[in-house]
Design goal:
Elements (H helix, E strand, L loop, with lengths): L1 H33 L15 H39 L2
Keywords: Membrane, Transmembrane, Transmembrane helix
Length: 90
Amino acid sequence: MGTFLKIIGIITLVFGIIVIVFTLFGMSRFLSFLTVPNLPNESSTMMPGTSWAIAGNISGAIGGLVIIIGGAALYCLGAIYNNVMDMKAP
């Protein structure tokens, strides 16, 4: 059971890292499309939905951190379970 929890914890950690990387990669690609050269006598304004898109990307990164914390917790629970079972063994 402990080894199973450790494996699930590692898989969850990797999934959380992938979520964060893709979120940050998507945010950088999104912001790069917004950098349009300014034309003379025109102001540069952001698109109307831009603030919501950036907030969604930030919440995706926070969600990735939560997934990583959950994976670390599962891994630690598996390690603790294995240690307790080793101590109980005669």
